[in-house]
User: Fold SWIM-type domain-containing protein from Desulforamulus profundi.
Amino acid sequence: MLRKLLGKVEAGRFGRALAGLQAGWQWEVRHRVFVARGVELRGKVKYSSKVYSVSISPKGASCSCDDFINRGVLCMHIAFVAMAELSHEAAERSAHRQVQEVRAGQ
Ligand SMILES: [Zn+2]
Assistant:
């Protein structure tokens, strides 16, 4: 679901979100619930003095920034949250696998 969402983000915004990931933008998640067709997320993206509220669900995504409000497009903050969540999920899977490998080796 998050990968599909990222596929709909325009290239320039995708690039700025990646740069944000690299620059250490913060994703403060307030709500993360796994549902039948994906995940429901709500929280805040923070960097320098900026704060934006982002929410993502299988039904769609929204952000409090001007880009989303004025143009109605998937903005770089939504893209950033999707990237941060995918990265988090990948790290969790990797950690889980390492625990299993340690157990298998005993
Ligand atoms: Zn935004």
